[in-house]
Write a structure and sequence with these properties.
2 domains; 324 residues; 4-stranded antiparallel sheet; 10 helices; 6-stranded antiparallel sheet
Length: 324
């Protein structure tokens, strides 16, 4: 049996999956309808909407199988997400990847598998798949039909994704940030790794809107968001809480690396603000708090401490400006 290789974009793929907040949720008719349709249209005993987690394959909808999940090591779908088109296995007992797989040699006795990857924000999160216990082929019409059903499943997943994404900046919104940050802090606590929260607030943002117009204000917000994405790492959790407030959870790092990143952000904003020909100058205040598992039992408590630190920084900046 061949263990499915890990995708090169696994970290961002898992982050996108976590952002949906869909794992281990209750069955939903919008997904169950698709698997019922697939099972009937292709005359197969099993049709599923699967999501490939870090160590398991979980079924959001499964028509024909009672189990809620399987190990990722035996998952056909964990192979399918490595491709950008349908993965077709006409006879698993003759395929070197699967011939001795327990799902082939035992229940549910898989022979035929066809799975189309489900993509959200360019990340293959799982599949819509159909399974038969006897070998078969797929003609072009059947391939297109499975693709059409998969695109319907993608639309439903995208609807969930939009509920956690800020439309203007494409960063996580408050709900999305809290979901990812909660999961990330659990990992940091378990592995005894440090984490630091940075809370940003754009200075004089109301004045920018009033003076230059809301279009210019939106450009300033998007430029700042681009700066956060450019400076911070893929492993850091970045979000826009709303208005002119942004947050970054820097993982595996204490206060000193976070301070260095803030300095690099100032340089990036200064340089790219000029290149973007913004009519206004983007300035910001920032509060920095190191995560403490005892003090910060919830995300809200961590955010509150960082918010308070940000206001201290903003007040000090105003006093310095007044003294000049």
């Amino acid at each position: 049996m061949m263990i499915p290789p890990t995708p090169v974009n696994e970290r961002s793929r898992i982050a996108a999956l976590r952002l949906l907040d869909i794992l281990d949720t209750q069955p939903e008719e919008r997904f169950d309808r698709l698997t019922r349709m697939a099972r009937r249209l292709f005359s197969v005993p099993i049709a599923q909407v699967t999501l490939v987690d870090s160590d398991r394959q979980w079924f959001k909808s499964s028509d024909g199988v009672v189990a809620a999940e399987t190990s990722r090591d035996v998952s056909f779908c964990a192979h399918a997400i490595l491709e950008n088109d349908m993965m077709l296995v006409q006879d698993a007992s003759q395929d070197e990847r699967f011939h001795d797989n327990p799902l082939v040699t035992g229940d549910p006795n898989i022979r035929f598998y066809a799975g189309y990857p489900l993509k959200v924000d360019a990340q293959n999160l799982g599949t819509l798949c159909v399974i038969d216990n006897k070998p078969r082929t797929f003609n072009e019409e059947e391939r297109q039909l499975l693709k059409d059903l998969a695109e319907m499943a993608e639309q439903e997943l995208s609807a969930l994704q939009q509920a956690t994404t800020d439309v203007l900046t494409t960063l996580s919104n408050r709900r999305g940030f809290e979901l990812l940050a909660r999961h990330t802090l659990r990992i940091c606590t378990r592995l005894s790794k440090p984490a630091t929260l940075l809370f940003f607030d754009l200075d004089r943002f109301k004045w920018i809107n009033d003076t230059f117009g809301h279009g210019e204000g939106d450009r300033a917000l998007k430029t700042f968001a681009q700066g956060l994405l450019a400076v911070f790492r893929d492993s850091d959790v970045i979000g826009r809480l709303g208005g002119d407030e942004f947050v970054v959870l820097v993982t595996g790092a204490g206060s000193e690396p976070a301070t260095g990143a803030v300095a690099r952000l100032e340089e990036w904003i200064s340089m790219n603000g000029r290149m973007a020909e913004l009519g206004c100058e983007i300035r910001f205040s920032v509060g920095q708090v190191q995560f403490n598992a005892v003090r910060h039992r919830t995300i809200d408590e961590l955010l509150a401490d960082a918010d308070a630190a940000m206001y201290v920084n903003k007040t000090a900046t105003r006093l310095q400006t007044r003294d000049r």
